[in-house]
Amino acid sequence: MVKLLSPDYLANVTMRAPGIKATQRFYEANWGLVLAEETADSLYFRGTSAEPFIYGLREDSTFGLDAVTFHVADLARLEALHRQLSETGVRLQGPLLAQTTPGGGIGFSALDPDHRRLRFVTGVTPRPAAGDEVARPRKITHVVLNSARGDDFVAFYTSCLGFRISDYSAEQMVFLRCASDHHAIALNRSPYASVNHVAFEMPGIDSFMRGIGRMKTLGQAPAWGPGRHGPGNNPFAYFVSPSGFVIEFTTEVQQIDEAHHQPQVWPRDVPEKLDVWMTAGPPTPAMRAVMQGRPDPGFPEG
Ligand SMILES: [Fe+2]
Predict the structure, then answer these.
(1) Residue 251: its pLDDT value, please?
(2) Distance from the CA of 94 to the center of ligand 1, in angstroms?
(3) Which residue in 99, 169, 198, 235 is a FRET match for 144, CA 20 to 30 A apart?
(4) Is 280 helix (H, G, I), strand (E, B) or coil?
(5) Which domain does 181 fall in, by range?
(6) Separation of alpha carbons 177 and 300, rounded Å
(7) Cα–Cα–Cα angle for 104, 105, 110, nearest 5°?
(8) Domain of 250: which CATH number?
C-alpha cells in the first residue's frame, strides 16, 4: 500500500463573524495573544511560536470557520499533496497561489465533506520566535469539528489527507493526527456541521493555570474545567469568546509514537476516563449547546 502524504502540522485557524474588531482587546489582554497584522476586514494574532500568526478573525455576516491552515514542509510535498487530493476526488479551490495572509508563502485550498475550507501552505516566512512566555499561548494544537457526516469525515481525513486515528471516544468522537500531537482535528458526531472548539496550547501546566487565573481576574471563569481529558491526556479549560466561539487552554498534549501507538476506544460512561482529575465534571447542558454552535454553511465549490 502506498503511504499517503499528510500535511506536517496545524499552523493556524481563522474564524469569521460579525463585529470582530470589537473582540481584539479580549484576545490580547485576556487570552494572551499579540496582534500580528490588521487589514480592512481581518485581525491576525500570533502566539509565542515562530508562526507568523496562529489565530485569525475575518469580518463576515456568518458565524463559523473561515479556514484551517496546515503547513507543508516544502514545495515538492505541497505539489504532491495537491495531486493526491485531486486524485482522490477532493474539491480543490483552484491551483497553487501566493498567499496573502501574514507570512505569505504559496498554497492552495480544498473543501472537506462539510464544505469547510482547509488551506495547505509552504514557504511561509517565520517571525523571530519569542520563546515561551508565562501564560501566553504558544500555538493552536487542535480544532474539534461537529459533523453529521462522521463516516465521510473520517474517510476524508484518513484516506485523502493521510491523517492517522489516535483514539476514539466511544461512538461519539474520533481523534485524528497529522504530526506527533495526539490530535490536530477531531470529529464530534452532531446533528449539523459547526465548530465545536479551538484549542490553544500553553507552554506548561503552570502557564495553563496562570492563564485561567488571568481570565478569572478579568471576570470570566471557565465554562467547563479545569480538568484533564482521558484521550490525549491533556488538561483543559474551556471559555466562550465574545463572538460565542468556544476556545480552550490546554497543555501537555500526549505525543504519539508512530511506530507503536495503537488507537483505543475510550468509554464515555466511566467518569475518570473522561475527567481524569475528577475536577471538571461533565459539561452543563448550556455548555453543550455552545459547543454545538451555530450551523456553519461552509463555502461553495468553485
Ligand atoms: Fe480540545
Answers:
(1) 98
(2) 31
(3) 99
(4) coil
(5) 139-292
(6) 26
(7) 105
(8) 3.10.180.10
- In this structure, the answer to whether residues 180 and 223 fall within a common structural domain is yes
Q: Specify the pLDDT at position 130.
A: 80
- The total of other beta-carbon atoms located within 10 Å of residue 282's CB is 13
- Measure 292 CA to ligand 1 centroid, in angstroms: 13
Beta partners for residue 10, in sequence order: 70
- Structure confidence at residue 128 (pLDDT): 87
CA-nearest of 123, 109, 141, 118 to 73 is 123
Helix H segments across 89-182? 150-155
Please list, in sequence order, all residues whose beta carbon lies within 8 angstroms of the beta carbon of residue 190, skipping any fewer than 6 positions away: 146, 147, 148, 196, 292
CA 217 centroid distance within chain: 26
Give percent helix, percent strand, percent coil of the chain, each to the nearest 5: 20, 35, 45
Nearest-Å Rg of the Cα atoms of the chain is 18
Give the total number of structural domains in the chain: 2
- How far, in Å, is the centroid of ligand 1 from the Cα of 105? 28
Q: Where are the alpha helices (DSSP H) in the chain?
A: 24-25, 75-87, 150-155, 205-217, 271-274, 285-292
**156, 89 contact by CB (below 8 A):** no
Centre of ligand 1 from the C-alpha of residue 212, in Å? 15
Low pLDDT (below 70) residues in the chain: 1-2
- Ion ligand 1 neighbours (CB, 5 A) are 199, 248
Residues 244 and 169 in one domain: yes
C-alpha 76 to ligand 1 mean position (Å): 32
Contact 201, 140 (CB under 8 A): yes
Q: How far is the CA of 185 from the centre of ligand 1 (A)?
A: 9
pLDDT in the model for residue 197: 98
Measured distance CA(302)–CA(297) in Å, rounded: 15
User: Where does residue 62 rank: exposed (0-12), middle (13-18), buried (19+ CB within 10 A)?
Assistant: middle
pLDDT score, position 2: 64
